[in-house]
Specification:
Residues 26-46 have a biased composition (Polar residues). Keywords: Signal. Residues 26-50, 342-365 are annotated as: Disordered. By secondary structure, the chain is mainly beta. The longest helix is centred in the first third of the chain and has 7 residues, at 50-56. Residues 1-28, 31-48 and 353-375 have low confidence and may be disordered.
């Protein structure tokens, strides 16, 4: 079993980078040593056009890169032997509308490093331009430097951090719009650095201390905090004006004072660094600020930055001090502009046109971007359901990357302590036929001969620790699905031989005990529910039905869609087992499948229909893994007055309470593209945009445009 690999290591990972290209040529690689506003003029034109807005603001909101670290050997373990460390990768900017520019930083043991990128001058921040539709090779050289306190440590974490759209210069009326996705920051790469030689030592002049304030303290009410005092994944670093009294950061002469708070914390300790125009500066007269977090408290610092000018870019980056490089990720505040009190934005904000919030990411939200997913390994996996009755261990799978050698894999996420298991790999592609429940999950696996033909097949059972519990081998029949029945310590296995599909009970040793069904229908997916089995059955004409049968093969109840909607699996969601439509996107009304989803309640033992308000919603419905909430998406086209041209798409996300069927929440998402709802958790939903492939005319998922919304 291999250890968890975070974003973009050893295999190509798709990364939705939100970057800009201002101020660089196609071959530019530059250190950032000057104020980017020194060559900028405010453009105070009275008119506002879409072309102008695109050129000066909108085009910097998006872009995508596909990273490939495959040229590095053992990319997660690097040794320092006295020479510069070299991190190499390629980035593919295919299908981008514009060039994009990324600023790179590096941290070792939480200490900022001086780097050189593609032979550039050395600096703590270096920008690289990525021309559209081109592959750019990147080489980052680092000469490690550490503090004396780290001299005796043999292993240190290495972070490569990216700042997107780093060349963007707010201009004219767009100065008041905020940054939205621009300047978003994330961890692109992490590794364990083994120190075989002593590194250069540097001195950092003390540190400012974040104050831990009780999460219930009334002084925090003026801030927008969703995870105050929580020690869990998904933390956010936020920057406000002092006491959040003003919308903008306002200067006192050349001094900028602001409040920085942690909305949740992923780790106990952080080093926090402050930046003005992408250059590291002192905070409260010190080189950095330290955080010692604890549950129930909110780390807060009133930061004082000197020598700040009107329209300077200000932000903070928190680097976790943890020995676990696989989970470490930096946190970055949204970039903010400092304003003089007499700036027109402050004195007369009504003169500014309203910003298009479809591209904005408010500080109170961790997404409507996929920045968090770069360092949250869950983004790469699809949740299946909890394998235990206490709903602690969530099973997820990942389909094989075409460029990876390891194949399909599973992980188990511990929802209590927020830890992720090792990866369990299989060459078998039938992840959707996996069965789970009663503390175990069952997969199908196989062994191939030298000619690539199946030599032997297996039904393999694992527990939440990915420990193999049992294995049954088959050599002369084709496996379709299997489930472990904990109540009787048996297996239900569907096989095919000579065109006949047989579902039967087996012992743990693989001895067939009783045939339950035999004929033209086969079990696509089986889930055990105590003394009953929930079976998704299909025939070769793709007709499908959900049947509940007892262990004697008797059908207790059965239901089939009115229209075939190509259900490919049944899922467990808390006490519910349901058959989701295989759409995941909102169809047109006349193309919608059934206006309901078939659901089996394992407690009441009743088969029923869950019916949202429209068939469009039913086409995307997914239950959260605990079964308490149903989540759907619909879309509405926006056309011109003549209804001849599609201008955009407004998507809406709906949530229903499962018990009552009542709609409890509605979120409008203006992404300007249709959405494909892909993964639903108790606290978030992840989805892709859809696009039309010009070559084939088919609607496809744009895997480079991946979003996440907190529920």
């Amino acid at each position: 079993m291999k250890k968890l690999i975070i974003a973009s290591l050893l295999a190509i990972a798709l990364v939705f980078l939100l970057c800009s290209c201002a101020g660089t040529s196609e071959s530019d690689t530059q250190s950032l040593v000057s104020n980017p506003f020194e060559t900028s003029e405010n453009l105070n034109s009275e008119t506002h056009t879409e072309d102008e807005r695109y050129e000066l603001y909108d085009k910097y909101q998006s872009g995508a890169l596909q990273f490939d670290f495959s040229e590095m050997n053992d990319a997660q373990n690097i040794e320092y032997n006295g020479e510069k460390i070299n991190i190499t990768f390629s980035a593919n900017a295919a299908n981008n509308r514009e060039d994009i520019t990324i600023g790179y930083m590096a941290f070792i043991g939480g200490i900022p490093q001086v780097i050189s990128v593609n032979g550039s001058e050395e600096a703590e921040t270096v920008s690289v331009n990525f021309p559209k539709d081109e592959i750019t090779n990147v080489s980052i050289n680092i000469k490690p430097r550490i503090t004396k306190e780290l001299e005796d440590k043999k292993e240190l974490n290495l972070h490569i951090v990216s700042i997107f759209n780093i060349g963007y210069v707010p201009q004219g009326k767009y100065v008041g719009f905020g940054f939205g996705n621009i300047n978003a920051g994330s961890t692109v790469y992490t590794a364990c650095l083994t120190m075989n030689e002593k590194a250069e030592t540097v001195e950092l002049s003390g540190n400012a201390e974040f104050e831990n304030i009780p999460a219930s303290d009334s002084s925090l009410k003026s801030y927008t905090l969703k995870k105050a005092g929580k020690m869990s994944s998904g933390a956010i670093l936020k920057m406000f004006s002092v006491n959040n009294e003003t919308e903008h950061l306002i200067l006192d002469k050349s001094t900028q004072t602001c409040d920085v708070l942690f909305d949740g914390t992923d780790f106990d300790t952080y080093n926090v660094f402050f930046y003005v125009n992408h250059k590291r500066v002192q905070v409260n007269g010190k080189d950095y600020a330290a955080v010692s977090a604890k549950a129930g408290y909110v780390p807060k610092l009133t930061a004082i930055l000197e020598n700040v000018n009107n329209h300077d870019i200000v932000y903070a980056i928190a680097v976790p001090l943890t020995d676990d490089y696989t989970k470490a990720r930096i946190l970055k505040t949204t970039s903010r502009l400092s304003f003089s009190p007499d700036d027109e934005i402050i004195t007369n904000p009504a003169t500014q046109p309203p910003a298009d919030t479809s591209a904005d990411v408010p500080e109170s939200e961790p997404g409507i971007t996929d920045i968090d997913r770069l360092s949250d390994p869950l983004f790469a996996y699809t949740p299946m359901g909890y394998i235990d009755n206490d709903m602690r261990y969530l099973l997820l799978y990942r389909e094989k990357n075409p460029d990876a050698a390891d194949g399909y894999c599973y992980i188990v996420y511990n929802s209590t302590d927020k830890t992720i298991s090792d990866e369990l790999y299989t060459i078998d592609n039938r992840c959707l036929r996996t069965s789970y429940g009663d503390g175990y999950f069952v997969i199908l696996d196989k062994v191939l001969d030298d000619n690539g033909k199946i030599k032997e097949q297996y039904v393999v059972t694992y527990n939440e620790n990915l420990e193999e519990i049992n294995r049954i081998a088959f050599s002369d029949t084709k496996l379709f699905s299997a489930a472990y029945i904990a109540a009787t310590d048996q297996y239900c296995i569907c096989t095919e031989k000579d065109g006949v599909y047989t579902m039967a009970l087996y012992t743990k040793d693989g001895e067939q005990e009783k045939v339950l069904t035999s004929g033209e229908w086969y079990a696509q997916n089986i889930l055990s529910t105590g003394d009953r089995l929930a079976v998704l059955e299909r025939d070769m004409n793709s007709h499908e039905k959900l049947e509940i049968i007892d262990l004697s093969g008797n059908v207790i109840c059965s239901a089939a869609p009115v229209k075939d909607y190509n259900a490919i699996r049944i899922e467990r969601a808390g006490k519910l087992i349901y058959m989701p439509p295989n759409l995941g996107y909102s169809p047109l009304p006349d193309e919608a499948p059934n206006d309901c989803v078939i659901v089996y309640d394992t407690e009441s033992r009743e088969l029923s229909e869950f019916r949202p308000e429209t068939a469009q919603e039913a086409g995307t419905l997914r239950f959260t893994p605990d079964g308490k909430t149903a989540v759907c998406i619909t879309e509405t086209d926006i056309t011109n007055e003549d209804k001849t041209d599609l201008i955009g798409v407004i998507d809406k996300l709906y949530m229903y309470d499962t018990e009552s069927g009542t709609k409890i929440k509605e979120i409008e998402i203006d992404t300007k593209s249709p959405l494909y709802m892909h993964r639903v958790y108790e606290d978030k939903v992840m989805f892709y945009e859809l696009f039309i492939d010009e070559a084939t005319g088919e609607t496809r998922q744009n895997v480079q445009c991946f979003y996440m919304i907190d529920l």
